[in-house]
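Our working data are protein records whose layout never changes between entries. Instead of coordinates, the fold is spelled out as a row of discrete tokens. Here is such a record, shown just as it appears in the course material:
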Amino acid sequence: MNLRKKRVLRQNLVAYAFILPNFIGLFVFTLLPVLFVFFLSLTKWDSANPIQFVGISNFTRMFSDSTFRISFFNTFYYAVGTVPITLIAALGLALILNTKIRGRNIFRTVFFFPYVASLIAVVVVWNMLFHPDMGPINGLLSAIGVDNPPRWGASTKAAMPTVILFSVWRYMGYYMIMYLAALQGIPRDLYEAGNLDGTTPFQRFRYITLPMLTPTTFFVGIMLTIQCFKVFDIIYAMTNGGPGRATNVLVYYIYNQAFSEFDFGYASAMSVVLFAIVLIITLVQFRSERKWVSYM
């Protein structure tokens, strides 16, 4: 018995030895920085002078910071515009490309390509296509009779819709793959039973496809929401938060405060607020999932 216990212990130690480097990296490069952010949110620090404890003054400062309020609104605007449209577009593409159409593998690759392509290269091409004066998109709109085509990224009103449109185009192919995997996992017997009962295609979608896709839909919704609230690279590459503050989102503002103004305490406080917002929205989504499942 003792020999068996020693053998099990040795096997466990070998297993822990393999995963220990990963845990050390997670602790040093992820957990410790996160805990340090919570500490820094209560301090004033510019990395050149000693850390000063200031309590909750960084949090109260946000109420009088107009740029923070604008960035907060822009983040919600971006998320509310991007999440549902991307969900619908990804699901629609998956439904179409799950049928037996000619060249569907090519279309799957084409729609997935923007996600894996270099962001900078894609943004450069996108900005050229949607250039307000020399872009082919506005040239086409003018040719068909549109007198004042949108200024796209150069307009304070159209800049955020342009970023949302780009994000939907970039992400829908990735989440289309998830929906395709979920669709192919639905048993064919359910559709055959529906056909025997004389259901219409919409009824089969409503009562078979949609309920079976519920776990995937909520997973995609949560991932998209988190992705939208931490968006930075698209904003940085496309607009730099402009024109003016039209596309200045929270993460971009946090980045500027930390690495342009060197106000690490205030940037950390905004990071804590952003973490709380994402946590609350995620919990609400998990709770609504249970209600949706019980309703279906």
